Amino acid sequence: MNKDEETMAINRTGIQGVPSRTKDLLESLSDAEPSSAGDADLMAAERNTYVGAGLAVGHPPPAPAKEANDPAADVRNVLAVGVLVDKLGERLAFERSGVRLYDALIAKLDASGKLEGGPSRDELVDIRDDEQRHFKMVQKAIETLGGDPTVVTPSADLAAVKAMGLPQVLTDPRTTLAQGLEAILVAELVDNDGWTLLITLTEKLGYKVAAKQFREALQSEEEHLAKVRGWVERLTMNPAALLS
């Protein structure tokens, strides 16, 4: 199917477009037999048996060497630093994914061309480069704490699962630049909250230099979010952009 045929195609997913068949369809539902026994309550009960087993998504990273080897270190502080390294691992994974998302969006822009009200290529490259700088900054922060930036922490693992749909939207050749930007908007919203939480945790543990760097990163991310919001809004108001 070419683009002209696609544009002319009719969406047949709704049943109300053919009222004469709707009654027959609804009546036939009572004749349909489930393919397996049980219902939603049974599925929830089955999941809860695993909840009761206390299984976890991954394991916390080892405590940073300088904290774990200090006999005077407060145990609660060692645990808190472990939480910080876990969340740093999450931020590291997210910033790396951000670079890839913007690379995919730049490729989509190259294919569609610049749209009125949308981003320029240089603007997207600048944001992609910011994400890469943030990735390297977090990597350095983990190393400074004595952690291992190659560890996939539990929070990093969960972040990857939660964001699985975003690269699928960006790399789908059928999606438009406007739809790609909507996926980027989801990532930027999560990213902003992630940096805010990381700053709070870092300040509480007294890592002032790192907290200052993270606040600068958040300021940059807030600018990204404002730009992406603006592009999404302007392209949504431009019907031609929705098909480009």
Automatic annotation (TrEMBL):
Residues 1-22 are annotated as: Disordered. InterPro entries: Ferritin-like, Ferritin-like_SF. Gene3D superfamilies: 1.20.1260.10. This is Ferritin-like domain-containing protein.
